[in-house]
Amino acid sequence: MSASNSQRGSSFFKDDDQLVQSPVSSPSLQESPPSSPTLSQRLHNSKDVQSPRLPSRFLQNDTGSTQNASSQHADSSIKSQNATPPHHSTSTTPDTSSLHSSDSSPVPFHLNSPHMPKRMVSGGYFALPKQVSSLRTEYRPASVHHMPSFHPPSDSAPPSPLLLAQSMKRKGSTMSIPGQTSSVYSNPNSEGEGTALEEKLVIIMVGLPARGKSYIVNKLVRYYNWLQYNCKAFNVGNFRRQQASHQRDDASFFDPSNPETSKLREDMAMNTLTALLDWFENENGVVGIFDATNSTSSRRKAVVEHLKNVPYVTTLFIESICNDEQLIAANMRMKLFGPDYRNMDPEKSLRDFQERVRLYEQKYEPLGKFEEDLNLRYIKVINVGKKVVAFNIRGFLAGQAVFFLLNFNLSPRQIWVTRHGESVDNTLGRIGGNASLTSLGKQYGEDLAMFIEAKRAEFQDRLFYDMTRESNLMHGGNFHERNEYQPDFNNQSPIEPTTPIELDPEDEEKIIKPFSVWTSMMKRSMETAAYFDDEQYDIKAMRMLNEICSGVCDQLTYEQIENTYPEEYEARALDKLNYRYPGSGGESYLDVIYRLQSVIVEIERMKHHVLVIGHRVITRIIIAYFLGCRREDIAHLNVPLHTVYCIEPQPYGTNFYQYNYDPQTRTFTRVPFHV
Ligand SMILES: Nc1ncnc2c1ncn2[C@@H]1O[C@H](COP(=O)(O)OP(=O)(O)O)[C@@H](O)[C@H]1O
Ligand SMILES: O=P(O)(O)OC[C@H]1O[C@@](CO)(OP(=O)(O)O)[C@@H](O)[C@@H]1O
Known about the structure:
The protein is α/β, with parallel strands linked by helices and 675 residues long. It has helices spanning 39-44, 69-82, 118-122, 161-171, 188-193, 213-226, 236-241, 259-283, 297-307, 325-335, 346-363, 369-373, 396-405, 424-428, 439-474, 505-511, 523-528, 558-564, 566-574, 589-595, 597-605, 616-627; strands spanning 11-13, 19-21, 200-206, 231-235, 287-291, 313-321, 378-382, 387-391, 415-419, 515-519, 538-541, 609-614, 643-650, 653-662, 667-671.
């Protein structure tokens, strides 16, 4: 990964929006040149500098209150919709003079600017969920004022963003992780008021159609939400299809030489971006992903223009590039099952989509000099991460995207998750501890090993079948062939291959895959794995997979906890996700989520199969990640003992299967997936 950092002074707006390089340095940038007025001088002379012109949604009305964002915002979007599009220079390199805003740092506002939005003055802009800590002495159950709030919990006026920007310069500002970090304030009052301003991230996708942009977006949305950052995708194609007259646009709609449809497409894109900003405003969004081709510098310039006045928003461009013709062809065929072509003639649809791509290719400008001159952050993902180029990546949230994009792949494989077999403590209803398995628990482990062996062979046959079909397709096979491989999911014995398999080494590696078995370092988990052949499986114990630590409640039953620590019992029932057990090592679900982050990323990185033999909390959190569960559901998923879950990542989503174990017949039966 190549990355380069360049420093640049931030900019200040004059009344006619002419930008001048201002001496003001934002927290992370170089000091201003000596000749320019310093920040304090500027503050002193603030009367002579016009405040930045803010989008109407941030402006106070005559009554001094901040107008309703949505109505204001609607006005501004109407204005922008009807406004003449920003002047696009005729030269190939767009005119960037109006763009040198410091997207990477907050646009400082004046203390006494008449345009200072009341909200910005009256309270912390983006309050983060307070760390709900139930230390021994007191526990404050998570309640509404602890939850992320866009508006301050108090009406008193905290320091304005400018002072905060100054203090961030002195103190600096680093990652804020829900449930893991909590900023320290000397003045206890300030905690409610000037809650540290947390960045909001707009991810802007770039790439030709069928380059996996939406696929990447869906994975990032799932990953950020699992980490408890409110993340949502805004797809321009979906926005287009919501308009009755654009549900099935053919390739001509995407012809860049057609000024009418080109303007329509630009308006649809900007309205989708406005919807993203509304979501920031009204639903306390933290990471908004703008999913479109954004395939020209002029479009990207318009996007940056649209965002440059929004406080505390940073941008990250993610471009997906693919020159693997076989993969592109496969992607295009996938599109035929999508909303634009569903139930239409495949051959005709394929030709139309190929024409659409050709039209985009005419004007496609990959990320590069234009973005680098503006110091914009970007990641180029080339051929599904075979090569990744990152430029000027800063900020915790952007770094999370890079980390994730370095570690995902498309290889078909299975991810199995189960709890350990029944333990002695399970029979006693005691939580935590480090008990061994009961005889039933051992029987489960033994039968689990045989079941997984059978499913491993079955998947291998399925892969071979699919590969054969794919190669037929690539070599003129009949696309209409629909007889998908229909495995017998309840088959207990490995299926003998029907014909001898002659594979070249590369194909063999894709089909005959290694298989990892991961356990925690607790006896009940490791004993369950004891029946797997370590010649055939890569068996590994991981402390990260240990069950949640219940601190002083360890080895108690829930009834004993309710009787001994009634407040704790009630507090946990109120908010299992944030609640942290008191006592040495006590954990919350959020603590375990962050403990499992490296495990999840490793599972995403792997191209082969894995079985995780965990615990109830571990199983819930891993399944919640792949299901994309809502925050409030994670800690309540129903994951009984002796149940195995199979997760199969797919090009357009994820397949889930559930198998229940019957100790009488010693078999596993597939049941409708339900957690
Ligand atoms: N980084 C990538 N490069 C190329 N293809 C990818 C990538 N990631 C996912 N895919 C494939 O792209 C297909 C989905 O394409 P999609 O996300 O709809 O493309 P786009 O949104 O760019 O039009 C899936 O079949 C998936 O396997
Ligand atoms: O979050 P809850 O629902 O309490 O479940 C966690 C509990 O589940 C248990 C059930 O006993 O896990 P485990 O799967 O290891 O048996 C306890 O060890 C653990 O404290």
